[in-house]
Predict the 3D structure of the following.
Amino acid sequence: MSRNTDSNRKAHKKKIDQKKRKAQEAEEKRKLRLKEIRQSFNDKLNQQEDDKE
């Protein structure tokens, strides 16, 4: 067993927290991108319907 167990635990927790934060940020970016794509698709669809009239 290592002598600096507490510092090892803190370092490991910090590394895990960074990974979680990175994953959350990536998920947020993905959701925003999908939202933008959906919005632009709907805008194009609405514009085509307006052009037909």
